[in-house]
């Protein structure tokens, strides 16, 4: 047992779990409130847990749940959830150079566990320590992802079981924006990143009048285009220099 804990990968796993501890401050109440809101909206415990385990993305789950309670068309619910989670595709492309040589099953599990917090912590860690080998990188990534994921499942279940005994208006609306600020802020390193973020914020506010949150879909698409175009422009400037 001691030799397992003293292995580099195990040490990185423990370090990842430690680095992820601050996120539990918002994950725990956020997950419990989601479970309570979902049951109050008419979902049973099995449906709530299936929602959390299959989607494992709080912001998309809340957006979809809100639209479902508003009787939005199914296509709008799905499109909104996909738009909110569109960033996962970019996360995957970004982290593939670090984890892409793992086995198929390991990559599949990493893809499932690839959400905001482990992505942010892992990319920062890998940039600071470029000499980490694959097993160490996997150890750190799963060390950040697994404890947060387990906490999300557990607190969602508790919220779903307690249902209406947990008030849904106890003021944890801050959880989503605070979490995203903590995740996104360290990654705004280039002009393209900042322009894309600013575009999305401005358009979400301007298009807030659109029904069923469809303004979010438009904002996400435009922000991606803006960021991509600025990247192209910056590459052309480099080539011309």
TrEMBL record:
State the membrane topology: Multi-pass membrane protein
Question: Keyword set for this entry?
Answer: Cell membrane, Membrane, Transmembrane, Transmembrane helix, Transport
Q: Where in the cell is it found?
A: Cell membrane
Give an example GO cellular component term for this record.
Answer: plasma membrane
Residue ranges crossing the lipid bilayer per the database entry: 21-43, 49-68, 75-95, 138-162, 174-195, 201-228
| UniProt cross-references to Pfam families, sorted A to Z | AzlC
* Gene Ontology biological process terms in this record: L-valine transmembrane transport
Report the family membership: Belongs to the AzlC family.
Protein name in the entry: Predicted branched-chain amino acid permease (Azaleucine resistance)
Species of the source: Celeribacter halophilus
């Amino acid at each position: 047992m001691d030799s397992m804990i003293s292995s580099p990968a195990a040490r990185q796993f423990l370090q990842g779990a430690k680095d992820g501890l601050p996120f539990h401050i918002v994950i725990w109440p956020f997950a419990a409130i989601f479970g309570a809101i979902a049951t109050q909206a008419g979902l049973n415990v099995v449906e709530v847990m299936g929602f959390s385990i299959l989607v494992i993305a709080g912001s998309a789950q809340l957006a979809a749940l809100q639209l479902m309670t508003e009787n939005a068309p199914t296509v709008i619910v799905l499109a909104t959830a996909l738009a909110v989670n569109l960033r996962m595709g970019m996360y995957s492309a970004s982290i593939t150079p670090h984890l892409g040589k793992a086995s198929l099953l390991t990559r599949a599990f990493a893809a499932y566990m690839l959400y905001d917090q482990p992505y942010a912590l892992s990319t920062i860690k890998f940039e600071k320590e470029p000499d980490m080998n694959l097993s160490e990188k996997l150890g750190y990534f799963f060390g950040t992802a697994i404890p947060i994921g387990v906490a999300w499942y557990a607190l969602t279940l508790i919220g779903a079981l307690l249902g209406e005994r947990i008030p849904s208006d106890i003021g944890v609306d801050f959880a989503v924006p605070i979490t995203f600020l903590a995740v996104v802020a360290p990654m705004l390193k280039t002009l393209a990143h900042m322009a894309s973020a600013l575009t999305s914020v401005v358009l979400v506010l301007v298009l807030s009048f659109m029904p069923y949150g469809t303004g979010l879909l438009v904002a996400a698409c435009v922000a991606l285009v803006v960021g991509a175009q600025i990247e192209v422009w910056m590459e052309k400037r480099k080539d011309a220099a």
